[in-house]
């Protein structure tokens, strides 16, 4: 990773050189002869230089952060200055997507190795780090409100012997660095998504009373050599980051500006992490990336070739076709072979990166979940063009047909944005018709929120009234729920393999888990057969696979009755009574 040369921080007592300015008032110096003037200037220059930095100040070990040293006589943060945590306690709060969950695990791994401890309670914390999201205005406002609360707590702690420092990590740190550090002065540390390795140094600067910031984006950083400290519930599932950044440049999206360009983690480090998780008994791994199925590892010479990246038919990109590299289908193949009894999921993909070889691999591998997230964003060609999505409604529907043909039992989920720039009522109706035509069972729907730096911010007008956005969003949600209930009802009467997550949030008498299609299933907590068609029973615990007969369905969950314990390797539905 590229390091940043240190900024020169000059002490206040070293005044700027002023002898080049013409004197405004008459003085003896102004009336002096040229020779006398030269002597005055020479003497003044020597005094200024004598009080300035020495040569040694310019050859200290370099640092990779800039600190605000306006009120200090220290010119640099020394390399050996308190980079160890010395048992200081860090409390994390994570907001936004699963990438931020993974970022939290990476940041904690780095700090743990430096001797920091993790606080289970905010009141115990010496450092509070918020891992933030900038995807929508509402997400940022949540952070602003939280910062006000934490600042009030911080002021109270100033009166005690346990002062508290506040840090912002992730996308919001990169996007709002000026507002956070200079205008609001609410935080002590800022670290962008590519600067987590700098956290020990940034926190050391903050402990010395300075604000510290590193929000530079990298073209190489993937944290491939850092093993995240997983905090999944009892180790049943885990997230593995395989790539960072995005090159798609959709007109509404801030991600390329907060997360940077696409770069893929070397396949060897991914396989090592997945193997480690398998050894720990993890039953489900989700591969993560902003554009996860555009994965392309070029870290080794043998991966390089002249073969161009294949796209879904009818899709295009704003960038030139990429060549060579180990592709997503290759990675998915290798990951799925590590543990046949471990489920593999991935998110979040782009529809353009589903060539047939990816779909065929999903269909063939029993442990690759038959669930695909397929963000549509809109059902209108006019809006899709303004969004710079790289496809038409017709191309999207052709892809859906192709997916269903290759993977007949597939479950589909999607994203939709209501009220994008220039969206008309007719555009909105086309989106509703697309939702009805495809039949998704999970959806993520939001009203459009314009973000600075994006193409839409510079080129388009946010001209749909807020109340219209909200009305259209509510209509989309209503239609989505109707269709989801219809799709889910089709599995009533079937037997589904469910990975148990634990107790239901609504009742301690029920358990909950998820099907291969990522649908939540609620069922009574009771002992069941240790395997199909046998009489011996055993209790069900989190992390178990069980066969559940589905008895009813709603738009957001299924209800059923557990029949027996099972595994991914023996998921063929038994023919004995009660399992049909």
From TrEMBL:
GO CC annotation, single: cytosol
Domain MTTase N-terminal: 88-208
Lineage top rank: taxon: Eukaryota
Entry cofactors: [4Fe-4S] cluster
Residue stretches making up the Radical SAM core domain: 232-486
UniProt EC number: 2.8.4.3
InterPro entries: Elp3/MiaA/NifB-like_rSAM, Methylthiotransferase, Methylthiotransferase_CS, Methylthiotransferase_N, Methylthiotransferase_N_sf, MiaB_methiolase, rSAM, rSAM_horseshoe
Gene Ontology molecular-function annotations: 4 iron, 4 sulfur cluster binding; metal ion binding; tRNA-2-methylthio-N(6)-dimethylallyladenosine(37) synthase activity
TRAM domain residues: 489-564
Name under which the protein is recorded: Mitochondrial tRNA methylthiotransferase CDK5RAP1
Organism from which the protein derives: Poecilia mexicana
